[in-house]
Design goal:
Blueprint: E1 6-11, E2 14-29, E3 32-48, E4 59-63, E5 66-70
Antiparallel strand pairs: 1-2, 2-3, 4-5
Length: 85
């Protein structure tokens, strides 16, 4: 699979990964075609994480058939206490 065939989508805490594979092989003897094989396949997975993802800091790396995702949590607003006057 090529890295160009992989699509990754992030929406809040939802991550979607999909890939499409198209392969074609042909065996020839001279100008005659002896065998032709075609393989087309599509796979997709979606999952939810516990907290929202900072899509600006998200990274994806594809090396030797392994897809590695770095999905940092979105900074949450901290609670603020107000003094009573």
């Amino acid at each position: 699979m090529n890295k160009d065939d992989i699509q990754i989508g992030i929406d809040g805490n939802q991550v979607s990964i999909s890939a499409e594979v198209k392969r074609r092989s042909e065996q020839k003897e001279g100008s005659r075609v002896l065998k032709t094989e075609r393989f087309y396949g599509k796979a997709s997975r979606s999952f939810s994480l516990a907290s929202e993802i900072d899509s600006g800091g998200a990274q994806a790396k594809y090396t030797d058939g392994v897809l590695e995702l770095v999905l940092p949590k979105k900074a949450t607003a901290t609670a603020k206490q107000i003094a009573v006057q």
